[in-house]
Amino acid sequence: MTDHDIELVRESFAHLHRRKVETAAMFYGRLFEIAPEVRPLFTKEIAEQSAKLMETLTVAMAALRDPEGLTALLRKLGRNHRSYGVEERHYASVEAALIWTLRASLGRGFTPQLERAWTSVYRHMAGIMIAAGRAG
Ligand code: HEM
What range defines the domain where residue 103 resides? Predict the structure, then answer.
């Protein structure tokens, strides 16, 4: 995850955030299509869950330049996710749904460079969450 990756991800996130309701609906729609087994893990209303997800991503975007703050947040999230019943393999499904959503939403603006940047940032975040989940 380079500084340039962070810059690219932040810029494109601003665009998604302006259409957060639609973006979140696309993301969960896609996730439940490719990984229907995760649907029962979500107990809250999807509208509420979506708002929370976008809020966290906003915090994560702000925290990308504050690695220690971001790591602390992600460790806590990783432990929470274990208790929600999230398994390590689900992180790959979420990655796929996220990349799909970005492509559908940004269209031609979703360049290969932007895809690499988002993948790198997502894997960085997921890696910390997974490690924290393992540690218990
Ligand atoms: C970088 C990756 C991820 C981020 C940033 C993220 C973020 C969040 C946030 C902020 C919440 C709200 C509750 C809390 O603060 O703990 C949440 C809840 C949740 N997330 Fe994630 N998540 C990620 C990956 C995943 C994955 C891979 C799954 C697997 C399906 C997942 C499933 C869930 C579930 C089931 C809940 C609880 C919903 C409920 O109680 O209804 N998340 N997530």
Answer: 3-135
Which of 57, 74, 77 to probe ligand 1 with, by most ligand atoms within 8 A of CB?
77
Q: Does 119 contact ligand 1 (Cβ within 6 A)?
A: no
Total number of domains in the chain: 1
Is the pTM value of this prediction over 0.85?
yes
CATH of the domain at 69: 1.10.490.10
Distance between CA atoms of residues 21 and 38, nearest Å: 21
Of 74, 58, 62, 49, the C-alpha closest to 124 is: 74
The pLDDT tens digits of the residues spanning 45-102 come to 877 888 777 777 777 777 777 888 889 989 999 999 999 999 999 999 999 999 999 9
CA–CA separation, 22 and 81 (whole Å)? 24
Does ligand 1 have an atom closer than 6 angstroms to the CB of 81?
yes
